[in-house]
Structure to design on (118 residues):
């Protein structure tokens, strides 16, 4: 039981991944799909940050009293991924606005019906 609870952040990652994946698969609304992708993306961020943290590790500042260091690279990569994720979300929402103007709806099933009827 202690082993399971010591890695609770990985359980949170799995739960968020499944919730995000379910939203993307189950929802027909394009905005909800983007929200599901963002939840999934957040779980990946938490996974990388959790893997990069070393228990008892310190920032990589050279000091004789510090013997265990945490690698800052995963955290830096996640900062970059957050910026890319925001840009991707903005692009996705802009596309949803264009789709709404073109089709009059953001429901996937209605868009597919209108495409096949033409």
């Amino acid at each position: 039981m202690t082993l399971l609870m010591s890695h609770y952040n990985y359980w949170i990652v799995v739960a968020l991944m499944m919730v995000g994946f379910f939203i993307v698969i189950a929802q027909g609304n394009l905005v909800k799909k983007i929200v599901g992708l963002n939840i999934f993306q957040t779980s990946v961020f938490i996974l990388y940050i959790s893997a990069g943290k070393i228990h008892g590790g310190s920032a990589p500042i050279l000091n004789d009293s510090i013997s265990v260091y945490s690698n800052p690279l995963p955290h830096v990569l996640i900062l970059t991924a957050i910026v890319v994720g925001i840009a991707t979300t903005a692009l996705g929402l802009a596309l949803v606005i264009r789709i709404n103007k073109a089709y009059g709806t953001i429901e996937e099933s209605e868009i597919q019906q209108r495409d096949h009827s033409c």
Remarks:
- The chain has a mean pLDDT of 90.
- The helical segments are 2-6, 8-26, 30-52, 73-103, 108-117.
